[in-house]
Amino acid sequence: MTNNPHISIQHLNVFAGDQRILKDISINIPNKKVISIIGPSGCGKTTLLKCFNRLLDDTPDIKVTGKVLVDGENIYDPKAEVTHIRKKMGLLSQRPYPLPMSIYDNVAYGPRIHGTRKKVDLDKIVETQLKATGLWNEVKDRLNAPATRLSIGQQQRLCLARGLAVEPEIILGDESTSALDPVSTSIIEDLFIKLKEQYTIVLVTHILRQARRVSDYIIFVYMGKIIEFGPTEELLLNPQEELTKEYVKGFIS
Amino acid sequence: MIRRKLEENFFRILMALATILVAGSFFLIVGTIFYKGIPSMSWDMISKVPGGGFYIGKEGGVLNAIIGSLYVAGGATGLGLLISIPVAIYMNMYLGGKNIIANGLRIAFDVLFGIPSIVYGAFGFFIMVYFGIRASLLGGILAVTLLVIPILVRTLDEVIQTVPKELRDASLSLGATRWEMAKVVLRQIRPGIFTAILLSFGRAIGDVASVLFTAGFSDNIPTSLHQPAATLPLAIFFQLGSPVAEVQGRAYASALILTIIVLIITILSSVLSKRLSKNIK
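^ inputs. structure came back:
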């Protein structure tokens, strides 16, 4: 797909107990593009996403085999530093989960744990990232208010700002708009499109319209396997595989 | 239709009766304590130490027991928290919520929770004899700490489990270590920590058996950890055992003081917990 993949997955398998939920996944994720992972519920798309920043490490009975190379470095190498890997990726989950602290501290949290202590530096990061997510004008007068006072849509943008503050290279979105109203959804979608200039973005979504609106490439996953991977328009309008055809038809009516 | 309506009414009345029974006994208990305690209540009761030795006299008050009880319950809850918070975090965030060892620990703490407090008293006494410690404030605090640890650990454990996994994932995704993640979780459960403190303090301040051999009793307010300390429940015990009616009346006044302390702690922690969850969550 590209000469310079940002994330390269090689023969990735995920086992939950004796059940194999991801089967021999191999794929190259191109740099600075938006990639959507689509597929029916329970097909393994969220599991695939969580493999990217080793969030499955803490789930009991889950075993991962294979390689995930980020910038050429295998993140499943036993010697790999997990906090360093996760710092490279910002995660935006289904519903916003602001940290139990103020708006300011939510954004400053990441930089703080990674060693930024000076108030001036933190102030600058907070302002930059809140501006990047379009929140600054809405919250600049109440930066010390608890983050939970914000609306759900604002909270989700705050979570995005919080993720961007650790200067990741990759943004992972796990159905990030599923809890949001249409207006907030389109704000987040526009942000993704804007952010792909600087970041590689991988989104899990079950909304085909959303995949079509924001992504450059689509990965179709079914029963733990990658069925098809291709440029958005091509995959949606002219799917090569029978399963993809059925799935796309079933949802775009 | 009529049968279903009758059934509905029958069970509704049954439930209402059960509720009235419970609420009624609560008011009866509190009422009795007030009714019998108020006549013997005086400023002296809460501002003076007893005159006439071990509560048998009619003079003075129970200030020594009030202070002693606050010391014992406060010390035990504080010490218990210092031990229980790391245990609860370790069980949930390092061993994993559904880990076999963690579940084993849960059962162990549930068993400890059910052990009568006299057993803790006896154990504490045994340890004290072994180390040559006399009945003292320190001994009392240690025995009561053992008593409240299971309460604290299990309460904190339950509260930690209510924290959504996504919140932990959120901090991990930012590159946090497990300990940094644990700190976020601790912030999130601050209101729950207040509940744990309340439960622990309530149990600690009311327990007789665990302090019977370990804290001893004294007419004076302890000024060091090594002096014996009086406690309110023991004071009530001694006063009730007196043949003199006036001294018996003082037992109800002591009970009234104990009840009021527990009431204040309950209201205070409930207010604080509500305020915290409003501001932080």
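Chain A has ten helices and ten strands. Residues 119-132 of chain A form the longest helix (14 residues).
thumbs up if we can close this ticket
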